[in-house]
Amino acid sequence: MANIQEKIAKLFPEATFEDGEILLVNIPDAKWHQLAKCLKEDAELHFDHLVTIVGMDWTDKLGCVYYLNSTKHNTSLSVKVTTDDREKPMIHSVHDVWKIATTFEREVYDFFGIIFINNPDMRRLFLSIDWKGYPLRKDYDMNPEVNPVSLENERQEDTTVSYVEKEDGTIEKKVVEIFAPEDFVVNIGPQHPATHGVLRFRTAVDGETIKKIDFYSGYIHRGIEKICEGLTYPQTLHFMDRMDYFSGQQYHHGLCLAIEKALGIEVSRRAHVIRVMMDELSRIASHCLFLGTFCMDLGATTMLFYTLRVREQILDIMEKTCGARMTFNYGCIGGVMQDLHPDFVKDVKELLAVLPKNIKEYNELFIGNVIAKGRLEKVGVLSREDAISYGVTGPSGRASGWACDVRKTHPYSIYGELDFEEVVYTEGDSMARTKLRIAEIEQSAKILEQLIDNIPEGEYCVKVPKIVKLPAGHYFQLVEGCRGAFGVYIESDGGTSPLRLKLAPPCLPLANVVDHLTQGSKIADLITIGGSLDYIVPDIDR
Amino acid sequence: MPYEAWKDNEYIEQLLAELRANGTNVIVGSFDKLINWGRSNSIWPLTFATSCCGIEFVSLGAARYDMARFGWEVARASPRQADFMMVAGTIVHRMAPVMRRLYDQLAEPKYVIACGGCAISGGPFRKSYHVVKGIDEIVPVDVYCPGCPPRPEAMIYSIMQLSRKMKVERFFGGVNRQEKIKDFLANHPEESLGY
Question: Does domain A2-153+166-176 have CATH number 3.30.460.80?
Fold first, then answer.
């Protein structure tokens, strides 16, 4: 950490530093782009993964916090860039350094109105183009009359704007066409059975070949981050079940860890074990459902019935302990809500006994199938560099050869002491993404096997103050969800509710990379590529 | 299911009383019975899901809950072939016009089930700036199915309620239902739907 600080201080004397779990660099906007380039390209720093951009409104100024990871040195860094201008705030874009930044910056623009200079696409991401105000600003007018529900079809534009900095430093607004005039554009979604929810692709095609995809989200944007600012910390937890509804347990885990870190609470060993077991059970259930729905997209409906058999078995185990089939609300600050059901150990053992047989069946039914091979192999190949640059984490990133499992890179809870393999494939095609998930089911089962006979006695939830107040400061936590790295950023002013709660979902980069992966492929491949990435739309939109 | 086990029996009785008020035509009434028997046992849903409730709807279609045994299994991707729309999930500002359009595209007679807390009232997201506070502001709702998400059993119950409702409707002559929809649409014009 000290080396990084020394090195940056030498190159950029303007930078100031704040120590913490992750080093925070304050840099003036004028130097930010230069620093970003240096951070990525310098061999000793090599911060090539942009985890998230957190937009912030500190009322006196607006700004962004960038979270960076180095895949080479496994180090983390955060950079803060601010601006005092509230009327027309501007920050330099880093879209040419990290490709995912284009979309992350659009999100910040949508919520805070910060314009990113040189970003090629400065449209709103989730809200309609006629939306008034920037909802995550502290002075946003919440009156529903300002932005009423409209039943008129949304106004569409075929152009986007870009604010380009000229050589003399002045900034020029440029209108950019999204599609070329001769492009034939097909609209896919939001109501389409193969988009896995309400996602919309505007697809420029040449015959059956895809030229470009412009992805539209926001059809299920529920404004969770803004609602959380008005709730107490324990109240914010239940939204974690409703974003990526398969990773409810992991997301709960992430937010609980962040809050516990801030409060300095040490969770009992029993709670750790229970949480990890629940995480892994969810992972198996999620990958099973992925396999079923993915095969259904390809026309193999039968597979759904095979995979849902295991999923239902897991949901039964969860239901006995948590009391719900989907929105468990199980993790809580200090541990878990209730103790395990007396049948838990027996049920999990029964599950582990039938799993290998089921996995074998999946492989025979689908993976070895000639049609599946023909449609998946060498389709939608994502290289390792692109996976990192586009921020594609989780099974999709690992299928491209990027070992990005947070359970291994930044071990949390008891993952550090468990014996499991991080499955990494190098092909990067749809087939690798599918096979990797099946292999991950095996690894999750391995973790469960290690823990099921070793659940320690003890309390399942430690004593936590009745009123949870986080000390002023900012906290960041990464966990591995079913679809990739899920980040939680909390900024607290010392009160009972967060000043800002940013949820960095893995699915936004996944949906964003579809354009890159499908260029030159056929329309039918769009379904297999989208399906194999396995994004969940409410997770993209929050 | 025995009659006493149902909830909302008063509502069905009231519908029946309305129908019987003018007497039943012997011939048309018999045809009504036949057709209602047929269509109430083959209600085809529209594949429409925005969030969590949609996953429970998938479970409903799979082997364990198996909605096929009731004749509902043919989930249609096109609204023109579907009988009802199970609004499974939150409806937000951006989705509202799309959903209304899907509803308009459903062929008559059409029905809507508001499935889950979000569709009924906005649910846990009621305080949000971008969530519709109940779909009954946009489309007429026939059955409300509470839960977050409702269990598949609850979904089965709600579709069975819908099928019961269909059975006591008059398919011929009785235009009461269509008039109700017309009234609703007249009161909720497309231009002015602010709160």
Answer: yes
How far is CA B180 from each of CA B31, B89, B112, B184, rounded to the nearest angstrom? 23, 25, 13, 6
What are the residues whose beta carbons fall under 8 Å from the beta carbon of A98, sequence distance 6 or more?
A: A36, A40, A48, A49, A50, A389, A391
Nearest to B193 among A148, A239, A242 (CB): A148
Side chain identity, residue A27: I
Q: What is the mean pLDDT of residues A64-75?
A: 88
Tens of pLDDT, residue by residue over B6-36, are 888 888 888 777 777 766 667 777 777 888 8
Range of the domain at B153: 9-187
Chain B hits for A126, Cβ within 8 Å: 94, 130
Identity of the residue numbered A348 = V
- C-alpha A412/C-alpha A452 separation (Å) is 19
pLDDT level of residue A2 (50, 70, 90 thresholds): low
Q: Confidence class of residue A284 from pLDDT cuts 50, 70 and 90?
A: very high
Of A154, A227, A325, nearest to B94 by CB-CB distance is: A154
Domain borders along chain A are 2-153+166-176, 224-541
Q: Does A193 touch chain B (CB under 8 A)?
A: yes
pLDDT at A1: 55
Euclidean distance between CA atoms A250 and A486, whole angstroms: 9
Task: Kindly state the average pLDDT of the residues A504-523.
Answer: 89
Q: How many CA atoms lie within 13 A of A86 on its CB side?
A: 12
Q: What residues have CB less than 8 Å from A108, skipping those under 6 apart?
A: A53, A55, A64, A114, A116
| Inside any domain, residue B53 | yes
Determine, yes or no, domain membership for B2. no
What residues of chain B lie within 8 A of the CB of A235, using their CB? none
Q: Kindly report the nearest CA distance between residue B54 and chain A, in angstroms.
A: 9
**Is A9 within 8 Å of A15 (Cβ atoms)?**
yes
Looking at chain B, list the stretches that DSSP marks H as alpha helix, in order from N- to C-terminal side.
9-20, 26-40, 52-61, 96-105, 117-121, 152-167, 176-187
- How far is the C-alpha of A203 from the C-alpha of A185, rounded, in Å? 5
Report the number of distinct structural domains present in chain B: 1
Provide the chain B residues 144-173 that lie in CB contact (below 8 A) with chain A.
148-149, 151
User: Quick check: B89 and B119 in contact, CB under 8 A?
Assistant: yes
Q: What is the pLDDT of residues B107-157, one digit of tens each?
A: 878 889 998 888 898 888 888 888 888 888 888 888 899 888 898 999 999
Assign A26 to helix, strand or coil.
strand
Euclidean distance between CA atoms A297 and A126, whole angstroms: 26
Q: How far apart are CA A88 and CA A116, in angstroms?
A: 11
For residue A177, give both structure tokens.
């066409």
Rounded distance, CA B186 to CA A75, Å? 61
Q: What is the mean pLDDT of residues A218-238?
A: 89
Task: Establish if B109 belongs to a structural domain.
Answer: yes
Mark yes or no for CB contact B92/A147 under 8 Å. no
Distance from the Cα of B41 to chain A's closest Cα (Å) equals: 23
This prediction has a pTM of: 0.86
The architecture in CATH of the region A224-541 reads Orthogonal Bundle (1.10)
